[in-house]
Amino acid sequence: MTTLKNDRFLKALLGEPVDITPVWMMRQAGRYLPEYRATRAKAGNFLKLCKTPELATEVTIQPLERFDLDAAILFSDILTIPDAMGLGLYFSEGEGPRFERPIQNEADIKNLIVPAMDKDLGYVMDAVSMIHRELDGRVPLIGFSGSPWTLATYMVEGGSSKDFSKVKGMLYENPKAMHMLLDKVADCVIDYLNAQISNGAQAVMIFDTWGGALTTRDYKEFSLHYMEKIISRLTRENAGRKVPITIFSKGGCQWLEAQAQSGADCIGLDWTIDIGLARKRVGDKVALQGNMDPSVLYAAADRIREEVAFILDSFGKGNGHVFNLGHGIHQHVNPDNAKVLIDAVHELSKPYHT
């Protein structure tokens, strides 16, 4: 078992005492870093970057060379699973991810490939293993997947969508087909995350990016239910350590109480709720991750520190807080401002852990 030199992130997820509040940033390996842009240029395109373990390892570790982060997160994409299921992922300039063969009916769902994790998604597992070795216990490694609902939105829409007309049309017109799709995707996510854990991921996160697009009834039936299924079948201990699970439904803070009953160890928050109020609502059932508006990072250093101080004070004293942004860091943020955030969290959080 690799000895972790810094395990405060894992401790915080499990509600255990820490010396200072741990911090990492969603999309911390990304386009705001010039070194990332250089590596992506070397790869030639985004998919090649994702599918080359050496390059994925390089960009995963890049932010740790700049910042005093408490965790690394695997560099990959949530759409690796639908790609491996046979939908033909490609990236169109100015349009984002697209699928050559989107899901249109039940026959398409029945014909989906069940990917082999060591073959069809072996490049992800190779990257996880390589990153784990390179980190050598420096900080924990986070593995991740999209939620079944979020993956299904891309699979049915054929790419990004503003109104989710096709996937919601299927949900309301043919719920049986939607459940069939979500069940298949959930099974793949279970295998995918368990394979990441066995290859060295020490915590995992489920990104439910489009959960907030649903009604309360539909969120519980078509999104949260399948995340609960995944959580119930994930490996919860590996290499002598507990493996914490975080779920994050963007736009889903109205369902915190239900999320807290999901079996997850931590709930990720976007910036639309006061974290102190969230803590009162869930009590000590789960840890909380978040939740600074990424746009604050366009401000001057004093304003960034002020926002960090406000969020830390709102959460208050005690355990179970992982500081993060309420969503991914923006492309045009100055990396120096990210450093201000990270250093401020470590400096200003000390009094909350005495």
What is the succession of H and E elements? HHHHEHEEHHEHHHEHEEEHEHEHEH
CATH class: Alpha Beta
Strand content: 5-15%
State the CATH topology: TIM Barrel
Number of helices: 15
* Main sheet properties: 7 strands, parallel
Strand tally: 11
Structural class assignment: alpha/beta
How would you characterize the overall build of this protein?
The chain is an alpha/beta fold. The protein has a single domain, classed as TIM Barrel (Alpha-Beta Barrel). It contains 15 helices and 11 strands. The protein has helices spanning 8-13, 34-43, 46-51, 53-66, 80-87, 106-110, 122-135, 148-157, 165-173, 175-198, 216-232, 256-260, 275-282, 301-315, 335-348; strands at 72-73, 89-92, 96-99, 141-146, 203-208, 237-238, 241-242, 245-249, 266-268, 287-289, 321-322. It has a 7-stranded parallel β-sheet. A two-stranded antiparallel ribbon has the order 2-3. A two-stranded antiparallel ribbon has the order 6-7. α9 packs across α10 and α10 runs parallel beside α11. The longest helix is centred in the middle third of the chain and has 24 residues, at 175-198. The chain is globular and about 60 Å long.
